[in-house]
Amino acid sequence: MATQSYAATPGVSATPPVPHAPVTPTSPLGGRSGDLALLALRLIAGLMFAQHGAQKLLGWFADPGRGGGGPPMGSLPWIAGVLELVGGPLIALGLFTRPVAFLLSGLMAVAYFTAHAPRGFWPIVNKGELGALYCFVFLLLAAVGAGAYSLDAQRRRRR
Prior knowledge:
It is a single chain. The protein has six helices and no strands. It has 159 residues and is an all-alpha fold. The two termini are 37 Å apart. The protein has one domain (31-158).
């Protein structure tokens, strides 16, 4: 097999072209700064999301005038509360991020279209901004993963 000499071709540099570096699964957003941004996003979104589950299931962070007791076990609000309370910390830790984020994104889409969208088209009108935002934050995490500063990345490195 003959090798191509780049110097022999008029107007072409003597060095071969360098292919673009592929985006790795641990740095989908551009290296260290992208991984730090994913860490911050995961920590904030995951811990805030878990508060919703704690409020639904445990009565924590509830309004002072709100009555006690959570939703009946097995009901849709109860299932949502369990997913929020368990999924939030998993997202914050970056553990099983892609499947958990995909599940939580779907949960928020269902919540938005069943509880908010019937009240009006615009999220600002139907009070669904938070659900829509969580839906797309989790969809992003499902697409790009947890980043380098996560338990998922540690698990990959140990293999």
